[in-house]
Amino acid sequence: MDALTELGVRFERHQAYFARGTDDETWLAFCGERGWSVLTKDKQNRYNQWEKEAVVRFGVREFYFASGNLNAQDMADALRVAMNSMRRTHAEHEPPFVASIAKYGGVTVVYDKHGSTHERRQPSKKRQGARRDGESR
Fold this sequence. Notes:
Layout: H1 2-6, H2 24-34, E1 37-40, H3 49-58, E2 61-65, H4 72-92, E3 97-101, E4 107-112, E5 115-116, H5 117-121, H6 125-134
Parallel strand pairs: 1-2, 2-3
Antiparallel strand pairs: 3-4, 4-5
C-alpha cells in the first residue's frame, strides 16, 4: 500500500472495517453506499455471477489485478503506471463497473451495468452471417 500513499491516494483497508471472511454482500454494500472504489487482487470476481450482480446492485467501482501471479512489487509498479488511467476511468464511467489492471498498468473496463463489455465488443453471429452473405466473391 506504499504505492497508494506515494501516489496520494486516500484509502481504507478492508480489515479496518471487516473481519477476514466477511461475505461480499456486506462489504460491497458498505463501499457502494460511501461511493468508495474497490481495489482487489481477486480476479475471480469476473466469473462469479453473484458478485457481478452485487457490484451492479450496490453501484460499486471495482478495480482488480488481472494476473493472480503478481507480488507486492509487481502490483505497486502496475499501480504507478495505471493510476492516471484509473482516475480517468473513475471520472468517465458511472458506477457500477469492474475494471482490470494489467501487469504493465493498462486499465480495461470489463463489466458495467449493461454486462460484459467484452461480449459487446464481439460481433454477433447474426451480424457475422449477414456480412458473409453480402460479401462479394
